[in-house]
Specification:
single chain; 5-stranded antiparallel β-sheet; 9 strands; flat
């Protein structure tokens, strides 16, 4: 029993490493050749996991071979566009300017029910409001409303807005995020002093503290049910 448990753990780790080596795509975004690799890795891990008489290398070595093949195919796809188009396919327009592309839908094996589902998933109730629908090579369907029905943007209203970037978490569950502190060109002394001004002299008492690109700091203490927000930097001083 202990042998089976150990083999299962080792094969699980090997499968995780193989999947991690393939990148960060979600299952729904896998290209056809990537999906084949995922299925084969699962099969290769299952065989030696259930059969104690099968050497572990019979599962691990083929996994390594698949990861190497995946790397080679990925490199070819990045270097040679015709090969990528052949391996992964190209985006297919299912609706153009509000008109359904019947020929392209049949070629892609997409029926009207699938199209209506994609429109509803995009938050559009009336199909007449849909302008362009694109079937991506990974299988996801992107729906774009007609210009008359899309949400107004600051550019449409001729408004000047400040640029926004990713907030910078500086303390998470009492642990100082030194990499983010350096990325923001900030000092630990400054952070501790700023947190103390909000009532948290000890960073270990802080559940979450982050700084956005507008210079606003959001802080919440452990066990607290409220958050504090304070302007601590001028937006011009933001360095990330």
């Amino acid at each position: 029993m202990l042998t089976i448990f150990t083999r299962s753990v080792l094969l699980y780790i090997a499968s995780l490493l193989a999947m991690r080596a393939m990148g960060k795509r979600e299952v729904g975004q896998l290209m056809p050749f990537e999906l084949v690799v995922v299925i084969m890795i699962a099969e290769l891990a299952a065989t030696p996991m259930g059969g104690v008489g099968v050497p572990l290398l019979y599962g691990v070595v083929p996994m390594v071979a698949l990861v190497v093949c995946h790397g080679l195919i990925t490199a070819l796809c990045m270097k040679w566009q015709p090969f990528r188009a052949w391996m992964s396919g190209q985006p297919t327009v299912l609706m153009r300017n509000g008109v359904i592309c019947e020929k392209q839908m049949r070629k892609s094996a997409v029926d009207l029910n699938d199209l209506m589902e994609a429109i509803r998933t995009a938050g559009i109730l009336d199909p007449s409001e849909a302008g362009t629908i694109v079937l991506e090579p990974g299988g996801q369907v992107n729906v774009f409303p007609k210009a008359d029905y899309r949400s107004a943007t600051p550019a449409d209203l001729k408004l000047n807005v400040l640029q926004e970037g990713l907030p910078l978490p500086l303390v998470m569950d009492g642990v100082l995020q030194r990499d983010n502190l350096a990325r923001g060109n900030l000092t630990e002394r400054w952070l501790r002093q700023t947190a103390a001004e909000c009532g948290y002299p000890n960073l270990e008492e802080v559940l979450f503290l982050c700084l956005n690109t507008q210079g606003q700091m959001l802080i919440q203490g452990k066990g607290k049910t409220n958050t504090d927000q304070k302007s601590v930097l001028d937006p011009a001083e933001v360095m990330w």
